[in-house]
Amino acid sequence: MTDARVDEIRASDLRGLVADPRALDALVAHGDPVVYRVVTAPGGLADGVGLAVTTIERGSVGDELFMTRGHVHRDASAETYVCTEGVGGLLLSDGARAEWIELRPGDVASIPGGRAHRTVNVGRERFSFLAVFELGAGNDYETVAKRGMGARVLRSGDGYRVVDTGHAGRATG
Ligand code: F6R
Ligand code: MN
Given pLDDT bands bounded at 50, 70 and 90, which one contains residue 1? Predict the structure, then answer.
């Protein structure tokens, strides 16, 4: 993918999405690190199929492990993720209930149409996955910013825990 598009998402791009805004401010003040990169195949594959590779760095905002912003497809199309590196997971939300699926290299996860989805790096290395999706799905980020994902993934000792937050209508806190 020599002519691929690379998007870098930094800590400052997670404003309004994290549990601890002060920890985020501190991280931004300390160099505003890249949280994840998305490499997208230009034009996608054949027949309206898009392809992108996301790599999430190891790290956290306070106790909340590095994660993607999360979105819902405006056209309610489904998507498939294939983990290629590291240990992470996929948070799914239908607006009422959250679901967590842990992903290791070789694991395949299906995102049903209409579900909000966010990925999180819970391992000691980078976490990478390949996404196959419908071109023109249209990513809606506002819904997740407004209602959250219904759960947060926090560092816990050497591991992690998934904490239910409910869909209280706010993404912060
Ligand atoms: C595409 C898709 C992924 C994400 C990527 C970054 O439909 O789900 O390629 O776009 O993992 O996550 P967001 O877009 O939530 O910042
Ligand atoms: Mn998607």
Answer: very low
**168: phi > 0 → left, psi -120 to 50 → alpha, else beta; which?**
alpha
Which residue type sits at 160? Y
Measured in whole angstroms, the distance separating CA 147 from the mean position of its chain's CA atoms is 15
* Angle value at C-alpha 93, between 90 and 94, nearest 5 degrees: 145
Residues within a 6 A CB radius of ligand 1: 9, 38, 52, 54, 68-71, 79, 119, 131, 133, 137, 139
Distance 26 CA to ligand 2 centre (A): 29
Residue-range domains of the chain with CATH: 5-159 (2.60.120.10)
| CA–CA separation, 68 and 129 (whole Å) | 12
pLDDT digits (tens, 9 = 90+) for 24-65: 999 999 999 999 999 999 888 878 999 999 999 999 999 999
Nearest to 111 by CA among 149, 161, 142, 167: 149
Distance 138 CA to ligand 1 centre (A): 11
How distant, in Å, are the alpha carbons of 9, 28, 52, 149 from that of 94? 25, 31, 23, 9
Q: Which pLDDT value is given to residue 47?
A: 87
